[in-house]
Amino acid sequence: AARIIQNMDPTADPCQDFYQYACGGWLNRHVIPETSSRYSIFDILRDELEIILKGVLETSDQGDREAFQKAKILYKSCMNESLIEERGSLPLLEALRMVGDWPVASADWSKTKEPSWSMEETLSIMNSRFNKRVLIDMFVWNDDRDSSRHIIYIDQPSLGMPSRDYYFNGGNYQRVREAYLQFMITIAKMIREDKNVSRDDSFVQEEMAKVMELETEIAN
């Protein structure tokens, strides 16, 4: 209640400017950070929670239950920047190997990988090992008809960009779309270089344009 009162401006006449009356205190005490597009009480609570979690994750793990130990191990692995730099692209290359490699980052994928490649198997690995849903989203959740049991749901997954607007609209959406395509091209070139595959910029651009075309069709 005190926080709500702080965020109000009781000096304003609600009949003249209800927004100032209800939110004037908040506007006077908060500025949207340059790194954010919005700033609300939920953003403040999230920031406060992250500080608390950081303190918890940095405490010693003696006597912790297994779930807490795993969380602390994950946190330490993310903070070990020297090891991350030392490993470079090796974790990414290993992940690609697990899903049958990436045609655009391979010199002869159609000959060496495609004959034994299975889309069904690849989708299941992406889901089970990397929690990444592609083409099909499948998950277990409460049954809408009977909340006492769980069932398997099949749905459409999220797109590569935040929404379908990014694939069709102009203005800022188009600039994001162009940057998204360029990002894919850059990553493909980097991986080809790390795998000592010959440079072929035109091939990479053509293949990534096909990927963008496929994503656009899915968004449509």
Automatic annotation (TrEMBL):
This is MMEL1 protein. It comes from Setophaga kirtlandii (Kirtland's warbler). GO terms for cellular component: plasma membrane. Residues 14-220 form the Peptidase M13 N-terminal domain. It comes from the Eukaryota. It holds the Pfam family Peptidase_M13_N. InterPro entries: Peptidase_M13, Peptidase_M13_dom_2, Peptidase_M13_N. GO terms for molecular function: metalloendopeptidase activity. One of its GO terms (biological process) is protein processing. The gene is Mmel1. Gene3D superfamilies: Neutral endopeptidase , domain2.
